[in-house]
Amino acid sequence: MKIAVIGLGFVGLVTATVLAGKGNSVTCIDTDERKIEKLKNGDLYIYEPGLDDIFEKNRGRMIFTSDYSLLKGSEIAFICVPTPTVNGKINLSYVRDSVFSVNSADRKATVAIKSTVVPGTASWLSFQIRKDISSNPEFLREGNAIEDTLCPERIVIGGKNAEEMEKISKVWEFTGSPVLKTTNENAELIKYASNAFLATKISFINEIANLCEIIPGADVATVAQGMGMDHRIGKDFLRAGIGFGGSCFPKDTMALVAYAEEKGIDMRIVKSTIEVNKARVKHAIRMIEEEVGDLRGKSICILGLSFKDNTNDLRESKSLELINELKAKGAKIRAYDPVIKELDGVEIVKRLEECDGMDCVVVASEWKEFETSPLYERAKKVIDLKKVVNLRVHPNVRAIGVYRGKD
Ligand code: UDX
Fold it and tell me: Residues 107, 213: one domain?
């Protein structure tokens, strides 16, 4: 098929590359000409395991441009532009502009919105351009994006036009995943409800972690394991830590609360989820202070900068929030990250050994390579804020959600 992908951020780039890998011709459009130049030169500006390989093999089937007129003749245009939260409310201007531009370039193309948008958006835009628009929300996770796109747990398609919805379904047929066809509004809300629910699971387990820290013999990882053995609860997204970050959960939970408030609905659970998440870095600071005392002049090594493992994405990174708070309290920071090697205002070391002899090592991201390290044995104090360190190998490490007891 001839397909257009609008917006070459994380979702757009992965979607376009995977679809090219399945033999489609993909016109990739972004208004940021620097991005287009980079892609033309084969420079992928995001780190996502496995993406560069598929990209290299299928670049020949991809066109990179800022010119919407080149999408003419595309059967489907996937809208993947950002929907940032501004003053706690969703900004839909990028979605609106791109839908209008697709419509001017080729009115025959089926429009499918992948961007996360509040319920009513597709219907509102359909009315504006006098044409049905479908919803096809995206559920991929950074760091797992290829697998999530090749074999998602479900494909959700919302809309009014059965023929267009079938066309979208055909594009994703290769996944073999179950398809839920529904209204635009349901599809839009499924995305928000899913993200808010997963975020709630995280905040919930983080509160249990707080409790575990004062109960002799308790460890939140084992509590989560036991909970997860009940399939009604499920084992995923119960890893306690420093809180959720990234480009989706923080923004989407806020947008959902604001949207509901506008409609006169008070989303108390989602509000608490956000509140609990906001308190995580302060909790982490307290733990570090308990270990090293007054932070002024103390040298702290931070392991992991991105908002989670297997990505170089720094958006809403709790690790960066932590660094800023520690610096404000007078600590001297040195950081190590498996993929981020440069960052304004942060001294980044290339090898872990360069963090030897510091006052405290803090694990702030869940990279697998942080499970064990000789650094933990040599360091004065080690704090694991992501429940990633193997405590059987390193019993000296203080972990979030584990009873500390008295030394
Ligand atoms: C999320 C959703 O999972 C995905 O379906 C949606 O399309 C986009 O938003 P993403 O933000 O890429 O994906 O990453 P995710 O793996 O969900 O992690 C989000 C944050 O939650 C990270 O900061 C991560 O460290 C944190 N997290 C996740 C936890 O603290 N504990 C967990 O158990 C899981």
Answer: no
